[in-house]
Structure formats: C-alpha cells, structure tokens
Amino acid sequence: MTKRLVIAEKPSVGVSIAAVLGVKDRKDGYIEGRDYIVSWGFGHLCELANADSYDEKYAKWSYNDLPIVPANWKYKIPRDKYSQFATLKHLMNRPDVSNVINACDAGREGELIFRNIYQMTGCKKPIYRLWISSMEDNAIAKGFRELKDGKEYDNLFAAARCREWADWLVGINATRLFSVLYHRTLNVGRVVSPTLALLVQREADIMAFKPEPFYTAELDFGGFTAASEKFKKKSEATSAIPKDKDAAIAESVTSKEKTEKAPALYDLTTLQRDANRQHGYTAQQTLDYVQSLYEKKLCTYPRTDSRYLTDDMADGVNAIVSCSVGICDVSAPAVVLSRQICNSKKVTDHHAIIPTMVAGETDIKTLPAGEREILMMIAKQVLRAVSESYRYRETVAVITCNGNTYTAKGKTVLETGWKAYNDKEQTDKVLPELADGDELQVASSEIKEGTTKPPSHYTEDSLLSAMEVAGAKEMPDDAERKGLGTPATRAGIIEKLIATGFVERKKAKKTVSLIPAQTGISLITVLPEQLQSPLLTAEWEHKLKMVENGELDADAFMAEISLMVNELVKTYSVIKGAEVLFPSGRDVIGKCPRCGGDVTESKKGFFCERNDCRFGLWRDNKFLTGKKINLTKKMVATLLKSGRIPVKGIFSEKTGKSYDATLVMTDDGAKTLYSLDFGKK
What does the pLDDT read at residue 426? Predict the structure, then answer.
C-alpha cells in the first residue's frame, strides 16, 4: 500500500495538517498514518552555500577575486537542521511513498523552501501542491480535495530561485567590493541599500531645512474664530488686526457635502503601518503576531499584498462580519456592503487578511496582548470595510475686515458610517448660520506666531509607506510590484538595517523614529546611484513577476544580473577623500606591516582595520600566554615600529623562574611569529 508524503514549512503547521488528515502516529520528525505521512522543514532547511565553498581563496576578501559568479550553484544544510533534512530524505525515498505534497506557505518563498528540499534529497517523485489561505480545518480539508499539479507552480519556483540567486550575487559581490575598497565591513543589498538611502535623504532634508517664522491674525466672533493668511512679518499681521470701528462682513458662505469611502481590508503592509501608529509595534513584531494568529487558525494567510476578497467569497461575508462583531464586542453595521470588499481582479496569490470562524469562537482574552490587539485590528477593519461611507458637510466662510480676508471652517457630521468603528469619536466644529453679506461683531483679536516645520523623521509606519511606493513613478503602469521588497520581506529589511548598525531606533515622547547612523550615511555617500535607487529593485520585482507568469526566461534574468555585477566591479572607483567617512573611533596604535593600514585595539587583541587584511596580534597567542607576556598598547606600538621590544619577567615553563629578553615579532605576509633574543637589549 502506497502513501503520500506531505511536507509543511514548520512543525506547528504539520501538526495541524496531520490532525485534519487523521494522521496520529507520532515519530521522530514526522507523523504517520494509513494514507499519509506528514513531515516538515524549519523554514529554509536548505541554504545557499558560502562563497568559500566554491574556492577556498574566497575565505579571504580580495578585490582581485571579484566578481564571484558561480557556474553551478551550491547549497548547504545548517548543522542544527541536518537531522530533519536526513529524515525528509529518508521519507522521500521510501519505496511506499508514491508522491509528495508541497504544503509549505502558499507563496514564492514557500515554493522555494520546498523545491530546494526536493532537489537536495534527489527526489524524482510526482509533486502536488496544497494552496490555501487559511489554516482552518475546513480550509485544509478543501485544499486537499483540490490539490494542484506541482508543475503549475514551476514558474513560481523559477522566480523564487532567481530572486535568491540574484540577491546572493549582488549581496556577496557588492558587500565585498565596498568593504575591501573602504576597509570596513559594509553590507550592501539591492533592497537594503535603497531603503537606507530613503532614510539618509530624509535626514539630509531635515538638516538642510531652515525654519522660518510666520504670523497670523485671528478674530474671535464669540462662537467661532477666523484666521488671516500667513504673514512673514509680524508687522504685517499687526496691520491686519481690525480697529475698534472696523466692520467684519461675511463676503461668501459656501457649504459642500463630502464623502469618505470606507477603507479596504488589511494587507500585511497596511496592517503593519497601522499597528505601528496605534500601538507602537515594529513591523517585525506585527508580522510575528499575525503569523502566530495564522498558525493558531485565528486569521488567514498574513503575507499578502491584496486588500480584497475574491468575488466567490461574497456569500460568506455576513459570517465574517458576525465573527468580527464577536471579536470586537461591538454592534454590527446597519447595512453590510459585501460587494464593497470583493474584487477578484485585485487579488493576487492571496486575499486580504481576515479573521477566521475559529477566531469568532475563541476567548481572545486568553491570547497574548500583542496577538489580541492585532486580531482586534483585523476584525475592526472588516467592520469598517463593509460599512457605509462617512459623510459630512463642510462650510467655509470668507470674511473681510480692515481690508483683509479671514477664513473660518466648520464641519457637521451627517453619517458616521465606517468611522463608527474608529477609537476616536468624530466631533463637529459647527459654524453658526451665516449668509452672504452678514455683518459680524469682532469680540476680540490676537496675533499668533508659528514656525515652519521640517520634514518628520521616518517612523516604521511612514517608512513602510515609502517602501511600498518607491520607484513607482519610473515603473510601467502594468508592473504588479513597484516598491522596495514585498510585504513578506519589508520587516526583515528594517531589522537588518538596525542589526548592522546602519540605522537606530530613537524614541522621543511617544514616537519611535528611525535615524541613520553615521556609517549608514557614509555608505550611501559612496554607493553608486544604481545601488541606492529604488528603481533597481522595482525593476527586479517587475521582471520576477514576468518570470512567474512565464513571460521572461529565468536564464535571461540571471544573465542581466551577472552583467550588472561584472560592470559594477569593473567600473567603480573609490571616492576621493573617503577615508574621513569611515573613522573607527578607536585610537591608532601603529601601521600594519602587511598593508600599511591602521592597527587598533579590540577586546581580543590588536588588528589591522582593513577588511581585506588578516594581520593581527592576538592576546591569547600560545607563545605569549605560556610565558605570561601580556601585550599592552605601548608594547604593540614599539613592535609595529621596530619589530622588537625588551621584556622583563618572562616566565619559564621549564624552570618556573623568570628572566629578561627581547621579544621579536616577524611577519611574512601570511603568518605572524614571535621569538626571543637573549643578546643585548
């Protein structure tokens, strides 16, 4: 009797799938039943190999070795994941396994995770694809009834592999190129770098901004106020203040009814932005919370860039609304506009994020605070999205007095609509009944002073928004993804910038801003426009979508990337005066005997600051520690200058006594050796 092998992306998902399939016999690394075997990876079980796996010489960073472009790509299994890989290899090659079902996340990365495992194990058995947007039992069961032929997703895999290989090529070569040329470890990437450039440009705009004062004259009419235009000089505002006998006339009073349509449902980026603004969550925190909710079957697939449901889901909207009402403990909309959130043309791989029916039956008070907040946000967005528009009447009164014009605005809410589900209540700012030509009595007047404000620092909310639209103007109208990264990767990009020290989170009052560090600013200063422009990655995403759709050959895409990397290495020149851009902040002890670079002190010893140079004097050198010689800054400075220094009280391991000698250091360009000279000191 043959069985089908199901491979999920992680253990928790595998366990959920096994429960639906009735697979119960738990083994080491898998669960087995009569018809199915369910196993799993741990995310990316197979990873691209390091550069030195292609040639040992690549272990040392050298300009002369660039570019590094593998002819045949190699993969590795991380040591801590090898046991599970071995389990999967065994299962895939079991004689009783007839075919393999890819149950990894239904997207580009999920396809890549599975196919890399499949190829690394040497499996040749037929592939079927489970493609679901919810971890609910009924969704899983339906997905298994509607399994797809794995060949339908070959182009998706090709696009995913192109992205993986291209990122490796640009990351490895650009990082080594700029690190070697500028003698610092400078991480460069096709998405990370233009994102950093956005932050650096914003800081430059803030630094260049010169605040200017302005003044307005404000009139109080005993129930409402009207303000003049902004004046650059206080004297101009003063002259606008009416005299005691000056009459104020309502020259024109206009009222317009305005409408704000309900917002769409959440995609991941919009959810991350709102969560940052409302709760201060980082993009990564929000992703972690919503991923956990998904695995607990409380919301649908989170890594989506769609804000709509498919047309065939319209009949189920009322149930989704009822579920959302229960989660938020609020009243249902008077009218549920189902078709408002259904548009198959605006749905890509996955529909918008919505609560599941399981969520409606769950006591959300038992959830961790972060997950609870995110689930309530998702549910409230459903209620907003199906509600009627917010309608209000805006009244504008233009008033003349003392030869100057003043403006007063009022707003009256006509229909709260979707804003009934906002935490902040809508308030009216009502103007009294006014008609053209009405004479008004000025109760008081004053001059108000203000200052023009610089652009705001980026927050994660505003940066995510900027990343989403970066490069959009330069891209063709039919490009499906125009921004930096994808909803699934943007949080990781921000975290990488912070982890590498290029960006810092700084809190002022309740706002956490993202501020580029000096090294980040310096990196953008020396990077060519090509690597810091959002256009490069926007073009990539467009072409990767073409590969996914079968409109562009994967080899042609990779040839473009290889050519770009070659040209970058051949044509880039070091910026003059760049040595001042990357100061280490450490005291220079002396010059490196190998390359002439600066030698500075670190915790483990004294090392050349040039990234491509391996010279170092280690504190734990066996020759030194055995003789109880402790290197000091002064000693190292002398050794670097003359190669020798007298040392007193050297310990003899043979006799246990101490003696004096001259410590001699020699370096042949590859190794540093010590010896003792017992001649004249």
Answer: 66
